[in-house]
Amino acid sequence: MSQERLARVLQSTLDAIITFDANRCVVLFNHSAESIFGCSSADAIGRPLDPFLCHKLRGLIDEAIAPNGGLEASPFLWAFDGVIARRADGDEFAIEGTISQVETQTGRLFTLILRNIEERLRAERKVRELSLQKDYLLEEIKEEHNFEQIVGHSRTLIDVIDKVKLVANTDSSVLILGESGTGKELIARAVHANSGRRNRALVKVNCAGLPTGLIDSELFGHEKGAFTGAGERRIGRFELAQGGTIFLDEIGDVPAEVQVKLLRVLQEQEFERLGGTNPIKADVRVIAATNRDLLRAVSEGTFRQDLYYRLNVFPLHVPPLRERRDDIPLLVQYFVRRFTAKIGRRITRVRGDTMERLVRYGWPGNVRELENVIERAVILSLGGELEIGTGVLPEPPAELVGQNPPMRDSRRDVRSEVRTAVYSLEEVERGQILEVLKQTSWRIEGPNGAAEILKLKPSTLRSRMQKLGIRRSTQVAL
Length: 478
Prior knowledge:
CATH topology of the largest domain: Rossmann fold
CATH architecture of the largest domain: 3-Layer(aba) Sandwich
Structural class: alpha/beta
Helix content: 40-55%
Strand content: 15-25%
CATH superfamily of the largest domain: P-loop containing nucleotide triphosphate hydrolases
Number of strands: 15
Radius of gyration: 33 Å
Largest sheet: 6 strands, antiparallel
Shape: elongated
CATH class of the largest domain: Alpha Beta
Number of helices: 20
């Protein structure tokens, strides 16, 4: 190949090609090198290569060009991922490439062939981030279909929903308090779904389910090599929730060293990946939840007082099921329908004494326990009537019988007198809808209308009313 053709090939390649001597003085600098490094060949040729080298790349080149260096054993030396070079304006970028040598009449020359892989790495990180977001969105969809809505219309629950509406469209931190199984995650989802961030991800972190040593990395991510086993950079949950909401469940289980970083996020809206030095801005709305007494944890020194007050900007207390007994018939109806469809049973009736047992039971596990009891009962019920034996729902201790107030229901007097009565699921639903309609003076649409309280579309509610024969003239004692 002629010198002229060789020169044309060198100048037309997409990779940067730099040839230099044993003193690292540049003798060839092709067009791609000019573009990548932002420097003309006239300014580069005859001058040291050093201004373009960062520490690790300089070390690799020194090792390669040294007498009896790496090139003696192998004609090529790869610059591995993580090696960076520097442009003439000082900007740094990731590279990959090879270095080789050739003996000439004037001595050894070395050729560095490299490419800027910054865009590729950025694209790969974006793909990984989108993949993680996809996983979270799929989880969101799964959760949405497994637990579609907040079920109930008791006064205590409506009070919580009213507060959700007030805080949702702000960016204030929310602290959700309540016993296990009360539906704290569902309330968090309601806050997110009614906020301006609803079209971005809601990222959930179960702080109690993460090993202590991994919480930091899980929340804030880590750089490659930050610790043993950190083979690549990892995007943390806060970074994944950018523009959206992060839900920190069981916040009381976060260790002290991570509490400091959480406080920084809330105060300064920034964080750093583990092993990193560059702060990352955090545009994230924080919702936390716990079943613990955080004030007691503060007094005992296990939870930071300043973090508590940063999280507790807008507290929401989710009532236990024993304080919203009016919702139990509606929840029973909801879970029976859900599990009969899932399991393949056909259950349409609930005995009066069975419903009364469900209402009078203390529910230490709250809605989650009720859900599990109904699922088990649906599996064991072989006929069209829901059967709940003592093996499914324990009988309350004798000293507690009569202590729990009866449910407020249109059939309260009937159930107290005829406890063997049988009620269909449609009758239960009919009673619940009538009660709500009376509360709203038969207003179906609009704020605080029956459809909003029942979490139904107005058209859906009207359809259910027509099917159940509910009309304004319906006479029922509520």
